[in-house]
Write a structure and sequence with these properties.
mainly beta; Ubiquitin-like (UB roll); six-stranded mixed sheet; 79 residues
Length: 79
């Protein structure tokens, strides 16, 4: 798992993360930020992915909650 944040400073901080999955990579990000902010933090382009949580499409302005597992799907373009 790729950890995009620094290590938790205390045991209380250890559970304040969400996990984003893109292709076969996982990124652990701090909860409380928007999905868009987390995507950018992971070095990805928000316009190039669709975001799902629990199998449902969500907007990138949704705030990540502790324990969220979000899957990023590449958008398909072309004609």
């Amino acid at each position: 798992m790729s950890d995009v944040t620094s290590a938790p400073s205390s045991a209380d901080d250890a559970d304040k993360f969400a996990v984003l999955t893109f292709r076969r990579r996982e990124f652990r990000v701090r909860a409380g930020q928007t999905v868009r902010q987390a995507i950018v933090q992971c070095g990805l382009q928000p316009e190039e992915v669709l975001v799902t949580r629990n199998g449902e499409l969500i907007e990138d302005d949704v705030l990540l909650q502790t324990g969220d597992r979000v899957k990023l799907l590449p958008t398909i373009s072309g004609g």
